[in-house]
Amino acid sequence: MNDTALFKPFVLGPHTLKNRIVLPPLTRQRAARPGDVPTASMALYYRQRAGAGLMISEGTQIEPRGQGYAWTPGIYSDAQVDGWRKVTDAVHAEGGIIFAQLWHVGRVSHTALQPDGAAPLAPSAIQAHKVKAFIETAPGQGALVDPSMPRELSRADIGQLVALYAQAARNALDAGFDGVEIHAANGYLVNQFISAHANRRTDEYGGSLQNRLRFLREVVQAVAAVVGPQRMGVRFTPLFSSTDEDRVYLGFVEPDPHQTYIEAIRILQQAGVAYLSIAEADWDNAPDLPRTFRHAVRQAFSGGIIYAGRYTAGRAAQLVEAGLADLVAFGRPFIANPDLPQRLANGWPLNALDAATLYGGTEQGFTDYPRHAAETTCTVAADG
Predict the structure, then answer these.
(1) Contacts of residue 160, Cβ cutoff 8 Å, sequence gap at least 6
(2) What secondary structure letter does DSSP report for 113?
(3) Contacts 24+ apart (CB under 8 A), 190-195
(4) pLDDT at 297
(5) Which of 77, 131, 280, 365 suits 245 as a labelling partner, its CA being 20 to 30 A distant?
(6) Is 311 designated active site?
């Protein structure tokens, strides 16, 4: 596979990526508590995977109210910034490039996770269904729970949130990240503003599609003013199937998903954003994105395009060679195979994923997945 499109360099803003393989944001719930601080184990985890052309951190909440799952890291305190700096130092020591994903879950939270037990925040006071939050029930133990009823954000609240995204971007630069990604997918806060299912506002942030896109536009502009548009990306989940499973795993199916997301992508184009990341449905027998949509995305956006789904190396290379994608992200395979790019390049078999250790826990299923024996042997021989 070494001679396929996946292993050609790609220029992304000021960065030259060594290959087209991306480590996407993957929630692992291993932050230290109290404080939700990145740990030395997290630094090792990312360092092990620095063979990716581009790495995106797991979602990191921009403020305490942005948390929907216990033990996920933040990027709003000094301790968190210091913890992330150890991660970025480790990645840079291996020649890697890493962006921070800026995350706010909005209504997908619970009063147990909110400061002073307050209601979660949302564009409209509509409770999230067919999705779960995760709370700690005892040290190291937790439970999935239904999200609490949220309160509707005021205009002043919205302005404060836009400022919090900008501050989180400053914190990411202070922590040594090479750029940032705005999480506008999976039914979380930005996605809630975009969606006609979650946004029933009657002011300038609701109603028409352009009004529902206003929060996205303001966040993009505020973050771009901090990091520069060529050091940022945005992630969407444009779903075209209306099954219950779609809503559980990813978010919302809009009445006209094609129009909704092409208009959203035009905002990124106008801002000069470096890349667009599209997360596809990734369960068994999930429907593929319409090819007409992929072509419309390419026509609407001149920056880098990342697709993430259940891609094999061959299918990913075909998408890049067809000019529909510039980079392809591999999620679960990268968890179980820290040396995934080398494995794909050489056709080596992949480690199996231990699904029971995905979220929370210890080093098991986190930093203990082995590299391929042939790679280890070559490294030892070269060092010797």
Answers:
(1) none
(2) G
(3) 190/104, 190/215, 190/216, 190/219, 191/236, 191/237, 191/251, 191/252, 192/106, 192/107, 192/122, 192/123, 193/123, 194/252, 194/254, 194/260, 194/264, 195/251, 195/252, 195/254
(4) 98
(5) 365
(6) no
Percent helix, strand and coil across the chain, each to the nearest 5: 40, 15, 45
Choice among 188, 205, 249, 261 that is catalytic: 188
Helices (H), 175-256: 189-194, 209-212, 214-227, 244-249
Mean pLDDT of 39-53: 98
Predicted TM-score (pTM) of the model is 0.95
Q: Give the pLDDT mean for 149-169.
A: 98
Which position has the token pair 């930005």? 190
For 237, the token pair is 């989940």
Q: Let me know: does 304 contact 263? Beta carbons within 8 Å.
A: no
Q: CA 332 to CA 24: how far, in whole Å?
A: 9
Encode pLDDT of 322-374 as tens digits: 999 999 999 999 999 999 999 999 999 999 999 999 999 999 999 999 999 87
| Predicted pLDDT of residue 26 | 98
Residues 6+ apart with CB under 8 A from 16: 9, 10
Strand partners, 288: none
Burial 173-194 (b: 16+ CB within 10 A, else e): bebbbbbbbbbbbbbbbbbbbb
CA-to-CA distance for 205 and 69, rounded, in angstroms? 27
Here the tokens at position 311 are 């891609």
Amino acid letter, 100: A
What pLDDT, on the 0 to 100 scale, is given for residue 375? 63
| pLDDT of 2 | 65
Q: Where are the beta strands (DSSP E) in the chain?
A: 10-12, 15-17, 21-23, 54-61, 98-103, 121-122, 133-138, 141-145, 151-152, 179-183, 232-236, 275-279, 304-308, 327-329
Cα dihedral 188, 251, 13, 344 sign: positive
Spacing of C-alpha 308 from chain mean position = 10
